[in-house]
Design brief:
With 173 residues, this protein is of the alpha+beta class. The chain has one domain (6-127): Aminopeptidase (3-Layer(aba) Sandwich), CATH 3.40.630. The chain has helices at 16-23, 26-32, 40-52, 55-58, 104-119, 134-142; strands spanning 6-10, 60-67, 73-83, 88-95, 124-130, 146-157, 160-170. A seven-stranded mixed sheet has the order 1-2-3-4-5-7-6, sandwiched between helices. Helix 1 (16-23) packs across helix 3. It is globular and about 40 Å long.
């Protein structure tokens, strides 16, 4: 899938080292709500499973985000907790720090939304975003997500707990 600046592609075994590097950055752990580091073997197995199992079997799909001009990997995008009965999924995006503020996140987010609504025929996408993460809140709101709730003490931070906003994008088509 191609946008104006980036394309989304399936994960490949050659991505394992880069995903390992990204997933083991402590600042990513808080945003993505993972408890800590992943081993290289865990990442390898995840990518292998993503290559051999269907989206529905895994209830998740993860894409590598690459630049259109030179095919440089700049981040990852996910649909997770895919619920085909209720036609909904969580959505997340991560852009490597050196590639931020170039429009890649907005372009990739539109592609993932399109994939969820047009390919998977989902009715809604949702995201929980810490209230201090103003960049992500702005990104998702500009893509059409609406804040529909606030979750008290939802995110563990070094200083305690923080509320998160619950955002939804409902496909009215």
């Amino acid at each position: 899938m191609e946008g104006k600046l980036v394309r989304l592609r399936a994960l490949e075994m050659s991505d394992v080292s880069l995903i390992y590097q990204w997933e083991n950055q402590p600042e990513i752990w808080q945003t993505s709500q993972v408890p800590g580091p992943y081993s290289m073997e865990a990442i390898r197995q995840y990518v292998q499973n993503a290559m051999t199992h269907s989206v529905l079997a895994m209830q998740q799909v993860r894409f590598m985000i690459e630049t259109l001009d030179n095919h440089v990997p700049v981040g990852l995008a996910d649909l997770f907790d895919i619920d085909m009965l209720n036609r909904k999924a969580g959505i997340g995006i991560m852009i490597d720090a050196e590639h931020r503020k170039k429009g890649y996140a907005a372009d990739a987010l539109q592609l993932v939304i399109s994939y969820g609504f047009n390919h998977l025929k989902l009715h809604q996408l949702y995201a929980d975003i810490a209230i201090s993460n103003q960049k992500s809140l702005s990104l998702f709101r500009s893509a059409g997500f609406i804040q529909t709730g606030r979750r008290k003490d939802w995110v563990k931070t070094p200083g305690g707990f923080e509320d998160a906003f619950f955002l939804q994008f409902i496909n009215l088509d």
